[in-house]
Amino acid sequence: MPYPTDRERDRPWVIRTYAGHSSARKSNELYRRNLAKGQTGLSVAFDLPTQTGYDPDDELAKGEVGKVGVPVSHIGDMRALFDGIPMAEANTSMTINAPAMYLLALYVAVADEHEAPRATLAGTTQNDIVKEYLSRGTYVFPPAPSMRLITDMVAWSVAEIPKWNPINICSYHLQEAGATPAQELAYALSTAIAVLDSVRDSGQVPAEKFPDVVARISFFVNAGLRFVEEMCKMRALGQLWDEITEQRYGVEDPKKRRLRYGVQVNSLGLTEAQPENNVQRIVLEMLAVTLSKDARARAIQLPAWNEALGLPRPWDQQWALRMQQVLAYETDLLEYEDLFTGSVVVEAKVAELVEGARAEIDRVQEMGGAVAAVESGYMKGQLVSSLSERRRLMESGEHVVVGVNKFDTTEPSPLQAEGAAAIETVDPATEAAAVEAIRAWRADRDAAVVESALNALRDAAKTDTNLMDASIACAKAGVTTGEWAGVLREVFGEFRAPTGVSAAVSGGEAAVEIAEVRERVKQAGQDIGSRLRMLVGKPGLDGHSNGAEQVAVRARDVGFEVIYQGIRLTPAQIVSAAVQEGVHVVGLSILSGSHLEVVPAVVEGLRAAGADDVPVIVGGIIPPEDAAVLKERGVAAVFTPKDYKLTEMMDEIVTLVRGAHGV
Q1: Please, which residues have CB within 8 angstroms of residue 174's CB and are 6 or more apart in sequence?
Q2: Does the annotation mark 3 as catalytic?
Q3: What pLDDT, on a 0 to 100 scale, did the predictor assign at position 349?
Q4: What is the pLDDT of residue 417?
Q5: Which of 133, 579, 624, 634 has the smallest set of CB atoms within 10 Å of its CB?
Q6: Highest mean pLDDT among 375-379, 453-457, 627-631
Q7: 252 and 137, same structural domain?
């Protein structure tokens, strides 16, 4: 049978890879290579100092520069990042939240230098700060000022860069933080309602233009392995969005009510054990957001098979890119109308999800909306409890993870053969170069122009003036990302979000196993002379707190007194808290790759404070060779994602504490 070349095909979604590391120059080289390979959109990963509004020479940036993304500290970096890339033709997604306004300002300023008309600029700033309080942790300011920044960006963008999506309402990290599909839908839509209400009530957009605001709202979602449920979730999201925008906001044009969303499939669900299994996981997750034409993603970016091990290499990213291209160009998927219309199973599942999400949206609205539900700790507590239940199912074996808790016998992997560099590593000299470069940048600027721009930003922030124009002026004056955020920290203050640990419902393995370890904890406390206390800390800027929160909940459940102060702590702050609280063990969680810099600083700080009898344990994405280095430098134990049985982990910790006290 001849190949059906005459059949009309839909245009493929925007094909992206999430990329960036080390420096703007190296990331630019990577972007150009990826575009040459057929990628149709850019997705910029920023490093953690940039994401949290710090310059590379800030104390909190130590060990984090260029690790999980590219450092962009000023307009010079943004120029280098887009050198040779036609910004009038590019479709650029920027994963940035608290400093989103400034990164957009830098992007617009460089586009002006390229003489790219602002009306041609297309892309997205993630800019969903609300979900940062619940999951990923790269927030800076309190909720009200954060919502003001979002509102200003949305209003300005709709008027000045009408092709740009000024916000991606982001349910992606909610799923990783434990959300059920109904919670994921409800909390994302509650955030969307909060944003739209804020823009409407700000008076910055005329009523007749408000449908244009709705039309530029996009979503960024997660797709897990339950791909039938995930596909139904996307159909439910489209139905709910259409309903909300028509009934609550009176948008009559169906095109402006249409759900627009992009996808990164589930990265935290990838496994360190038998990582080759991640290839089929990624493909199956991609199907969830492509099979249904009526709920198909507008843009997709896929992780690489080895992201659970560390930073992917260009070859790994190419493999992920080719997965999309094979589906889009080799299969017949894009030749058909929706495959699931009329399916009794799909319609029933969609109805179930819609009903569950509506009920949870109503609960959040009764509390005063998404911001109030963040400030009260309600949503965070719900997510921590849901994740605890998910872990219980995995630890008990009711939820099978192939290669981890079942079918774990394996052959040596040629992908990880001895001598092969299985992940990309960032040269330690990168940070030193970035520190030197930022200091040289500051020295070469016109100080008076910079000070004038910062003063104008400060003055505007004290009023209800839209801050985008002041931010673009700062960008063109050479202000750094840390300086921009520093001025707003002065005016708005900072914020520490509720951790959700105290509100979490217990979950875990069989009660008998928890009871056995609880008895060991109790006995150790009696032998030592005081109840065992554990400090759980997250040093540096890594805000992925899910693992730390689950460790804190399980430690509490087995009888430890737990001190957990949340994210973004310096080693000195962790040491001070450990000494002040008289803890018996310090547990550090870190996923950003900065473990070799920040963990030894905690160990050395405890020794200097006379607390060298306090064992330090570490959990995170830590390669075996790095684990060996940490142990040589005084770390008592290293746990990685394959160590998923938290109660067994607690048992090991009790043994370490007893040994440290000679009992």
Answers
A1: 131, 134, 135, 183, 184, 187, 188, 222, 383
A2: no
A3: 97
A4: 66
A5: 624
A6: 453-457
A7: yes
